Amino acid sequence: MIDKNSPIPIYFQIQEYVREKIKKQEWERGSVIPSERILTEAFEVSRMTIRQAIQGLVDEGILVRKRGSGTYVNDQKVEQPLQSMMSFTRLMESTGMKAAARVLSFTERKATETEANVLEIETGSRVIHLERIRLGNEIPIAIETSVIPKSLAKGLTKAAAEHSLYQFLQEKAGLQFGEARQSIEAVSADERTAELLDIAPGSPILLIERVASLKNGLPFEYVHSFYAGNRFKFYL
């Protein structure tokens, strides 16, 4: 199974073993892998070596940990066209995943100077500040913070925000979406972000800043999102 006399580190040999199991579909996507105790006994190595091997595969996005449940073979990364302004809910549906949202914060407050400039409203105008964890098949994919002028989000409630925000804005508020511009930056997860995304602190994540506008060019949403780098990717 592994060669302890090989110059190749044992943890790396274990990782190659796991990759091969997944490649041959002996360990199917979405299935739980053997526990650390079982793997320790099977490979006759220390638990620390097993943890090093598993953590490396988690960091690569090959495996994913679920609290209180175990470590699983990760599903394929969620992929989104770079040019697309698709709602998260619709994106999940297009990949066959069940979308969900957990609201962390839903408040009405005054817009900051930066927010007012971006959204082209008066400083101090009322805005809806919404922070959510976006999930696909119950796995946290992103933390999304949206700021929307209250005048454009009439009737929006915390309960409604637990579903598709864009669907509400289109169907209930009658908004017609136009274009958006966004920037993407690679950063490291701080402790809070890591805990919410269920990843290790310092893991690579994508910071996405987006300003979305209506068809008439008026900005209607200012968004900051943190996407788990091992579960999400853009393509062009």
UniProtKB/TrEMBL annotation:
The keyword DNA-binding applies. Residues 8-76 form the HTH gntR-type domain. The keyword Oxidoreductase does not apply. This is GntR family transcriptional regulator. It comes from Heyndrickxia acidicola. SMART domains: HTH_GNTR, UTRA. Keywords: DNA-binding, Transcription, Transcription regulation. It comes from the Bacteria.
